């Protein structure tokens, strides 16, 4: 099958590339499963085709609000309920280290989070904002003189491009100051999204929008099994494992004078994997976000 569309077809493809069925590939089925899982994980975490940018809606529950307001050092003066001991802390100073619990659980297929849109009141904004999910009231307009956002900018009828640009820049600056973005912390190995906002202004039923990257599941998007990078990486990884299995037999003479050379197979696999990873970094990996400060 030149275009694998399942796990088994991809494994069979890799074995054929290494010489099967003419040669016996000395790699156990369990090892093949592990190698394939590692390949898919590497593809999802590093390749731009392994993830998709998406938006998730989350509705707060009473349990979320209770946990988020137990101890929030950003907006709460003191500890009013049970302290959360910092994980891993030990020794006589364990009670001196406390971690806030203002987080929500995130599905493990979320690779990264870029932005979270929260009610403006939770970040210090007001009901007249545009940031997050705060919207002006019915009939209100940001351009009306009653709100004073663009006061002194003149009418909009027949406005030239320069004046329009200045008006939009003014509106954008006001929106940023009136409705600052939510401060968030996220680590994909933790499956927790920490929201450093004023949880005391949230209530059950409030909704946030999470802008994030979700890993594609090959069980639903089988084109992943036919990705050129996935196929090359899997073949090289299986070759490395094959060589590693045969290293202890290096120098063993087979019938006909053939000598096994597991070390050469292993070294070839390692070299090919390094080349493929370098190719990933230069051609397929999403560039890191710049920090501006």
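-> sequence recovered:
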């Amino acid at each position: 099958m030149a275009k694998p569309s399942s796990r088994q077809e991809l494994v069979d493809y890799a074995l054929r590339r290494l010489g099967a069925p003419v040669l016996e590939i000395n790699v156990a089925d369990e090892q093949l499963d592990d190698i394939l899982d590692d390949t898919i994980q590497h593809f999802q975490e590093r390749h731009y085709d392994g993830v998709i940018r998406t938006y998730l809606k989350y509705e707060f529950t009473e349990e979320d609000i209770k946990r988020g307001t137990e101890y929030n050092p950003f907006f709460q003066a003191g500890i009013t309920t049970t302290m959360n001991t910092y994980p891993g802390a030990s020794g006589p100073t364990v009670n001196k280290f406390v971690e806030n619990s203002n987080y929500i659980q995130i599905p493990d297929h979320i690779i990264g989070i870029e932005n979270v849109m929260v009610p403006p009141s939770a970040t210090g904004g007001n009901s007249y904002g545009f940031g997050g999910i705060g919207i002006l009231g019915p009939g209100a307009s940001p351009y009306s003189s009653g709100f004073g956002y663009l006061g002194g900018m003149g009418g909009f009828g027949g406005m030239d491009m320069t004046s329009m640009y200045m008006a939009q820049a003014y509106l954008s600056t006001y929106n940023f100051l009136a409705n600052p973005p939510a401060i968030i912390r996220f680590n994909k190995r933790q499956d927790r999204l920490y929201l450093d906002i004023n949880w005391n202004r949230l209530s059950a039923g409030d909704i946030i929008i999470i802008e994030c990257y979700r890993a594609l599941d090959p069980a639903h998007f089988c084109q992943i099994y036919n990705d050129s990078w996935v196929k090359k990486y899997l073949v090289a990884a299986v070759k490395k494992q094959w060589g590693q299995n045969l290293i202890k037999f290096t120098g063993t003479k087979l019938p006909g004078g053939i000598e096994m050379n597991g070390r050469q197979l292993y070294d070839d696999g390692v070299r090919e994997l390094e080349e493929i990873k370098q190719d990933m970094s230069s051609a397929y990996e999403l560039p890191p976000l710049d920090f501006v400060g």
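The longest strand covers residues 51-59.
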